[in-house]
Structures are given as structure tokens and as C-alpha cells.
Write a structure and sequence with these properties.
Largest sheet of chain A: 2 strands, antiparallel
CATH class of one domain in chain A: Mainly Alpha
Number of helices of chain A: 7
Oligomer: homodimer
Largest interface: A-B, 99 and 98 residues
Helix content of chain A: 25-40%
CATH architecture of one domain in chain A: Orthogonal Bundle
Radius of gyration of chain A: 19 Å
Distance between the termini of chain A: 27 Å
Chain lengths: ~160, ~160
DNA sequence: ACAGGTAAGTTCCGAAACAGAACCTAGGGG
DNA sequence: CCCCTAGGTTCTGTTTCGGAACTTACCTGT
């Protein structure tokens, strides 16, 4: 399979990665959540080449994750802002950050702390069940085909049974 | 900057992506959480070339996310299993899946449902504050440099202020 | 009028990564 | 002896990436 067909797969994870699974894309989005909006600011902070940055921004705009908005005319300049679809990626970003905090930090510890305004505490995000509020762990969650897709998905059962 | 130096960056997200930010790596991990353990099963389900699959599995083992375990001798065969470090990526996977369910599904809806054994409901994971239990949104979270890193991080302030 | 600066890209080239297919290794089964 | 299985490695051509220079369309100062 080629990477460019990933958005056709019957798998929400593959489809998500067809948008944000490229090299640099999630790092661009990290900076969006930090308030960066302009081309040259992205470039200065990211260390990515202008070529790749232009490509990633264009793809994110086409995917509806960012939108381009003029902030001045003559000369026309535009900035990039998260759409609601983009802001919905926040749990993804925060989960990735938290894993890095826990498993990839060096002696100095994680570089960034997150304070939750509502309760005032330094916090981390945890994944909880939208129905009962308990924390979700892999073995508490049973995966099943949704009825509309029955029989069209590749079952991993052979692998699980043995 | 080159992609290979990403694990040195003072940013937990970059460091996480140095492990799982490659093309295909998160899709390999999706299958790990579905119970797939063997080389040929990954290949059949993923549609990735054997070359790339071998490379990703090796990198994940080196990163401590998967471990290789013999399941028979003569001929020796080994399977890949998630370590605890790997299982800690569950929130990342589930957040990506949920975003795809919401924003990338077609008319048939999302292909997979998740049932939470503890409460019996079909559920989704939401990101909540580990301290107060409220759902976390981008604007409720204030980012600050941790004391050990003060002054060593690139501030996005110029971008935020204007 | 002209030099230099700014913001947001685009173009060009060599290096690295990827896709597809064939090949290899160490055994087992008929 | 031939074919099969599991888990890879090698080979070849196409894409994508990294680094640097160039472009466009204005603005500012002299």
C-alpha cells in the first residue's frame, strides 16, 4: 500500500494519520497550540526547511485543520489558525507530550509544565471513559466491528487466538 | 534540523515523535493493541513492505516499546509484544482513533466501536485533568517552562502577543 | 531614486527513505 | 527431493527531505 491511499482505509487511525502522520506535521501543530501563526515564526522555532513547512501548512489547510486568514493588506499577509477540527487534536498532542514526559525526559525532567486554570494544579491529561469517567486501559476496552462494516474488516483473530 | 536529532530536543512531543513519528510506526502499534504479534501477520494486515516493517519493528524494540519473545525453538520463532512503555501509548492511539471517528468517517460511520468492560457502554476516551477530573481544553491549560529549563526554551511570545 | 528590509513562499540539487519484487535461511512435511 | 513456513535481507527505481539560493510584492530610510 502507498501512504497516499491511507485516507481510504476502513480505519480511523489510518485516516487520521493520512492528515497528521507526516514528518513534522504534529510538530507544526504543537506550535499552533502554543500560539504561533506566521510562516517565519514556524520556521525559526521548528528548524524545518521552508520547503517542507510550506507543504505541511498547505496540506493542513486543505484538510481543514488550519485556516489561512489575512491580518493585513498591502502587502497582503496571512496567518495560520487552528480551526475547530484542528483544536480537536488537542488530546492527541497532550497524550504525546505526556508520554514523552514520562518516558523520554532526561535528568532535567520535562521542559514544560501544564497548569489547569480551572483547578490551579500542575496537571497531566488522563484518558477516561466518556460514559463512566473511569480511566481507560487497553485491557478494559473491547474492540468490535461496527454493524455497518461487518465482514469488511481484516480480523486479527488468528493472531489473538494462538 | 534533521529528523534524527529530534530525540535531543527540549520538547517531550519531539522526543515522542522521534520514536513513533515515523510513517507506519503508529499503524504497527495499532495492530499490537489489537493483538497482532507476528511478522507475517503485521505484513498481511498493514500492506507495508517487509523492508519497512522489519525496520520499524527493530526501532520499536530498540526504543523499548516492543519486546521480542521466542514462542518456539527449532526453528526459533519470535513474536513482538508491547512492553509497559508501549502500553502507555494507548491514550495516544485512542485519541487518534477518536479524532478520525469524528472528522474522517464516511457515510458508513466509524468502522470500530469500543466497549468499556467496566461500565458496559460503547464509549470514547476523553482527556481529563488528573487532578480535578474535568475535561481538558486547550484554553484551560496554561503552559509554562519548568524551572530546570528556564531561559533555555524558545519562547513563542512574540507570536502570541501580536 | 535607490538600497536594504520583511513576509511568505518557490526552485534547484544531492541525500535519504519508500514501494515492489525477488531472494535467503533454517527448519518441517509428504 | 520438492515444496512449505516464518522471518527476514537485497536490489532497483521513485518520492520525499534537507540545505541553500532565488522570487514577489510591498515598506522604510536617505
Amino acid at each position: 500500500m502507498r501512504w497516499e491511499n491511507l485516507d481510504q482505509e476502513p480505519c480511523s487511525l489510518s485516516r487520521t494519520l493520512s492528515v497528521v502522520g507526516d514528518r513534522w506535521t504534529l510538530i507544526v501543530l504543537r506550535d499552533c497550540f502554543l500560539g504561533v501563526r506566521r510562516f517565519d515564526d514556524f520556521e525559526a522555532r521548528l528548524g524545518v526547511t521552508r520547503h517542507v513547512l510550506a507543504d505541511r501548512l498547505k496540506k493542513l489547510v486543505n484538510a481543514g485543520v488550519l485556516e489561512k486568514r489575512p491580518y493585513q493588506e498591502r502587502p497582503r499577509r496571512e496567518e495560520y489558525r487552528l480551526t475547530e477540527k484542528g483544536r480537536d487534536l488537542y488530546p492527541v498532542i497532550l497524550s504525546l507530550v505526556h508520554w514523552g514526559d514520562r518516558h523520554m525526559a532526561d535528568e532535567a525532567g520535562p521542559p514544560i509544565r501544564h497548569r489547569h486554570r480551572a483547578c490551579g494544579a500542575y496537571t497531566r491529561g488522563i484518558l477516561t471513559c466518556a460514559e463512566c469517567g473511569e480511566e481507560l486501559h487497553p485491557h478494559d476496552v473491547e474492540v468490535e466491528e461496527s454493524p455497518a462494516w461487518t465482514g469488511q474488516l481484516l480480523p486479527p483473530k488468528k493472531a489473538i487466538d494462538r
